[in-house]
Specification:
The structure holds 2 protein chains of 2 kinds. Chain A is about 35% helix and about 25% strand. Chain A has helices at about 5-15, 30-40, 80-85, 150-155, 175-180, 185-205, 245, 255-265, 280-295, 310-320, 340-355, 370-380, 390-400, and strands spanning about 20-25, 45-50, 60-65, 70-75, 90-95, 100-105, 105-110, 120-130, 135-140, 160-165, 210-220, 225, 230-235, 265-270, 275-280, 300-305, 330-335, 360-370, 385-390. In chain A, β8 and β9 form a beta hairpin. Chain A is elongated. The two termini of chain A are about 40 Å apart. By secondary structure, chain B is an alpha/beta fold. Chain B has a 7-stranded mixed sheet with strand order 3-4-2-1-5-6-7, sandwiched between helices. Chain B has a 7-stranded mixed sheet with strand order 9-8-11-10-12-13-14, sandwiched between helices. The mean pLDDT of chain B is about 95. The chains are: A alpha+beta, B alpha/beta.
């Protein structure tokens, strides 16, 4: 589960990680008061206004309505409301949001941490994530702060420092020191970085996170180390033991159809194509999307109805797919194991009659337990539904439907 | 021979008396799998499905000689169940449970290191050696006996592959569902290795999906061995977008190596018979064997 930068920073702070302080607002009228509060707390006279959306690239991204960037600097208290207005309520388009962008419902007004001083401020990258192949967490660090880490990994892999954490003993002091030295730090900044890494790892472990990305981590001109941005991804499977974190979910960041599907116990991901699909099992669902593409269509969604496909799940699946105006045909692909195909077929017929007025062609492919009986039920129903048993036939029928 | 499970496996079910455990244990028994009992803490001494219930896995090993366990325990307690099975000396632990927290699996996998035990899953359909033992939730009738091994991250897609193999006039030696989670006990390569070493397996179907590097690792290993048996490969998720979790916790494209296209390319370069369409698995296998 993704959360916002301001929420991630709150979490980090509660584990003793130093952060760039800020106050979040959802209304331009609150901007001045927020900036004043921040000035009182930190002494900052410049303010960074940051759009809070679940996507990266905000600094370079543009707000459709105003042309403002998603992260801007206000060089005085007076400038803050105008800068906030340029972002709040607008639609921010970044390289990660897609062309439709994301509406900004909240902005973070943050202190300026790039102030001049005894040394030059310098940005670093720090991440913690799961190394799937090793089954261990790994700390990744780089001197190339502020850059896309995938680019750094591709172009200059030698600039990425990795430390794997042994599950039985956890993060050790020498590992944190190794990272801090490898980043070229010394003196107070070195000590601060070691502390930063320890607190950060503690936060990662304690919150059951699956990914932390602090980009950039900043060494300030007075040699403090703090998190300027924070991307935190929480392990959804572990949310049952973190009720407080579960509440950080922002439904407005998610596709409304995906939220609705989730309520019906369906696993749905909205895509851009023209052929909807409904499948039992995640792997088969992806494979069905691939079949649609090979047949000349584009999948409109991923939809896994799970192990217990029945009339109700089929009906909610139908309703969700049909809400997508791009859908020109629907392919239902069920491999009946424990689920019997005749039951699924009855479910399809019932749902079809109940919804009524389905104008797009539907192809039902049933295979496995009672597949023949299922196909017969579909054929005999008199509905505009065609059935297939072999996957190849289903692909052919999708092709015909699109022609 | 066959791999992991056979007619001599002495199987116990952890989470025996729960809804899932009860349903699938009865199906396994009906299939003919040698289920010698089950474990539900606090219900030891009872009889369930005409088989003894034990309080601990250790009791099941001591009293019923169990050496294979299948786990249906809910996610919050599943990692503990895996470690209990390993501690008791179970040799093959098959974990069906979906939704185990990653942190718990890191602990469990670490605990298993250095022990003589194979963990399959979690979040998998299990393992079946047709006509001998079904230790999983798959529809047994689809898997007709034969000489093709299957390794797959997915459940229903495994059934699809098995069905195509059978309809092509071939059959299955052992099918191993390795699971769709980010951390799993048996990797694609390890499962392929088992089947390569199995004298009852002539060829292998290897089904992967987006996310992780298991398929590439397996393909490179197959090539390094000199491609001793033909392998037909498919990767689900050629049309999956980046950064979106596709049902399985592990099915997410993070970087460039995670994509179906990248994996299929490496597999092709390693001499795997790659199919672009999941409808071609059966026919490709016939072609690869001829």
């Amino acid at each position: 589960m993704n959360i916002h930068e301001y929420q991630a920073k709150e979490i980090l702070k509660s584990y003793g990680v130093k952060i760039q302080h800020g106050v979040v607002v959802d209304n331009p009228e609150k901007a001045i008061a927020a900036a004043k509060e921040l000035n009182k707390e930190t002494g900052t006279e410049w303010f960074v206004v940051k759009a809070q959306i679940h996507a990266g690239g905000r600094g370079k991204g543009k707000v459709n309505e105003t042309g403002s960037n998603g992260v801007v600097l206000a060089k005085s208290l007076e400038q803050v409301p105008e800068k906030v207005k340029g972002i709040l309520g607008g639609t921010l388009v970044t390289h990660q949001t897609g062309a439709e962008g994301k509406v900004v419902n909240k902005v973070l007004i943050a202190e300026d941490v790039y102030y001049p001083g005894e040394s030059e401020p310098k940005e670093y990258y720090l991440g913690i994530l799961l190394d799937r192949a090793k089954g261990k967490n790994v700390i990744m660090a780089s001197t190339e702060g502020g850059m896309d880490i995938e680019e750094v990994a591709a172009n200059t892999p030698e600039k990425i420092i990795k430390e794997w954490i042994e599950p039985s003993v956890g993060l050790q002091g020498f590992q944190a020191r190794k990272v801090a030295f490898a980043l070229g730090l010394e003196g107070n900044a070195f000590k601060e970085m070691v502390k930063f890494i320890f607190s950060l790892y503690k936060a990662y472990e304690s919150t059951d996170s699956s990914m932390f990305e602090i980009n950039p981590v900043l060494k300030t001109s007075d040699n403090k180390i703090l998190a300027v941005d924070a991307k935190v991804n929480l392990d959804e499977n572990a949310l049952y033991r973190h009720k407080d974190l579960a509440e950080l979910r922002d439904l407005s960041e998610e596709d409304p159809l995906e939220v609705e599907a989730g309520k019906s116990g369906l696993n749905y991901v909205k895509l851009e194509g023209n052929v909807g699909c409904m499948v039992n099992g995640a792997g088969l669902a992806m494979a069905t999307m691939d079949i649609i593409k090979i047949s000349g269509g584009e999948p409109a969604n991923f939809l896994d109805v799970g192990g217990g496909a029945n009339a109700e799940t089929v009906e909610s699946g139908f309703r969700i797919i049909l809400k997508d105006p791009n859908v020109k045909a629907i392919l239902i692909n069920i491999f009946g194991g424990i689920v019997r195909c005749d039951r699924v077929a009855n479910g399809v017929v019932e749902a079809y009659k109940k919804i009524g007025n389905i104008s797009v062609p539907i192809i039902v492919r049933l295979q496995g337990t009672n597949a023949e009986e299922g196909a017969k039920i579909i054929e005999d129903s008199g509905l505009k539904v065609s059935s297939a048993i072999v996957l190849k036939d289903a692909a052919e029928k999708v092709k015909e439907a699109l022609a | 021979m066959s791999v992991l499970v056979n007619k001599d496996s002495k199987i116990i079910v952890q989470g025996f008396t729960g809804t899932e455990g009860t349903f699938h244990a009865s199906q396994m028994i009906e299939y003919g799998s040698n289920v010698v009992g089950g474990v539900t803490p606090g219900k030891g001494g009872q009889t369930h499905l005409e088989r003894p219930v034990f309080n601990t896995v250790k009791d099941a090993v001591d009293k019923a000689g169990a050496n294979v366990s299948i786990i249906f325990v809910p996610p919050a307690f599943a990692a503990d169940a895996i470690m209990e099975a390993a501690d008791a000396g179970i040799k093959v632990i098959i974990t069906i449970t979906e939704g185990i927290p990653v942190k718990d699996m890191i602990t469990a996998k670490n605990y298993l290191e250095g022990k003589e035990v194979t963990l399959v899953g979690p979040n998998c359909p299990g393992v079946i050696t047709p006509d001998e033992a079904k230790v999983g939730i798959m529809p047994g009738f689809v898997f007709k006996k034969g000489r093709i091994g299957i390794v797959s991250k997915s459940g229903t897609l495994t059934y699809e592959a098995a069905d195509q193999i059978v309809k092509a006039g071939l059959g299955i030696s052992t099918a191993i569902g390795i699971g769709g989670d980010p951390i799993i006990g048996t990797s694609t390569k390890q499962a392929v290795e088992l089947l390569m070493d199995d004298p009852e397996t002539d060829a292998i179907v290897m089904i992967g999906e987006i996310g992780g590097n298991y398929e590439a690792e397996a393909a490179k290993w197959v090539m390094a061995q000199g491609n001793p048996k033909p392998v037909v490969g498919f990767i689900a998720g050629q049309t999956a977008p980046k950064g979106k979790r596709m049902g399985h916790a592990g099915a997410i494209i993070g970087g460039a190596d995670d994509t179906a296209a990248a994996k299929m390319k490496i597999m092709g370069e390693c001499g795997i018979h790659v199919v672009e369409s999941p409808a071609d698995i059966g026919s490709k296998m016939v072609e690869a064997l001829s």
